[in-house]
Specification:
407 residues; FAD/NAD(P)-binding domain; D-Amino Acid Oxidase, Chain A, domain 2; 8-stranded mixed sheet; 19 strands; 22% helix
Amino acid sequence: MSHSSIEVDIVIMGGGIAGLWLLNRLCSQGYNAILFEQGDVGGAQTIASQGMIHGGIKYALSGALSGASEAIADMPEHWRRCLHGEGDVDLRNTKVLSDHFYLWSTASIASKFTSFFASKLTRGRVEKARREDYPAAFTNPAFKGNVYRLVDLVLDVPSLLKNLSSHGAGRIFSSANSNCQWQSNGQAIEALNLQQGDRHYQIKAQRFIFSAGKGNGELMQQLGIQKPAMQLRPLQQVLVKHSHALPLYAHCMGNNPSPRLTISSHATADGKTVWYLGGDLATEHANSDSATLIAKAQQELAELFPWLDLSDAEWATLRIDRAEPKQKGLIKPDQAFAETTAAVTNAIIAWPTKLTLVPNLADQVTALLAADNIQPQAGALSPELVHLTTPTIASPCWETLFNKTGV
């Protein structure tokens, strides 16, 4: 059996958007960083994302901007800089599905939001759309509501994963079937030991960053880390696959502070369109059975788009657990989260809490490294790592679900 002892600056556990962004960011700063993923790259929360990069307006529908919306107000512009190759991570090869997101209201509640969206608090971040600029789904004469255009944008998550993975080529490894074990002295991680085939690796690092989403729970349990604690907030999205060429990226405003319905659109390999449905529909019915939720979604779309024939559509649902730092009352966190832990002094526990805040998470991690004076030291990547297997990139749910559960 071959034994290799390898030293790097940073080991990242978890290959979702948070881990990939951190890998890109840290390597650009000169750190010798590597990443381990147990499943497919982006295979849990990331690939299930609707791809929205938003500035918080959707959290302000109650009539006042909250701490959450203020914390993320700059995020669309930050991501746009990266898409142009001018930010902290190069996203120039990432596909943009839409340069704008929309809000729409039914005629019955249109006046509720008019004065708020005209206020100075939202000026420059949301504007009322002209009817000639409406998305195609609202051009039917039967539509009587109002449409607002946001500064938010929508990314194609599979291409985002491919882009970030390509920049990290040679540094992203699979920990599946590797008999991973932590070597610890009770205060700090001494090494990550893993075995693939007849090769044994002892990997040492200055810092170990846990950015595995829900998987952070198992990692922390293995090392006896109790704080920070994790919460899981369930979500069940609906996917409707149809033949209408109506790409739509929009929130429907209801009577709640949160969107009644959120729709993103995704083209499938067979030339059809999937509307991916979130919002209150997905949160309030997270624990419903699939058939009940699909029936509710059909009712919602029939009410909101009575002119749209979905009689031949296919339907599916997807359950997701959103992993986050624990909050009182299991409420939604306002910001990204990264902290060191007293139980293991060279570990950082991190959750982005939402896709749009991933750059904010990277800022927090780099600040923690700077505070502990963690500098690049390990030099070139060990050639022994080439023998480790590389995980595949996850397939989007709008391609896989209808092969199994479409109705």
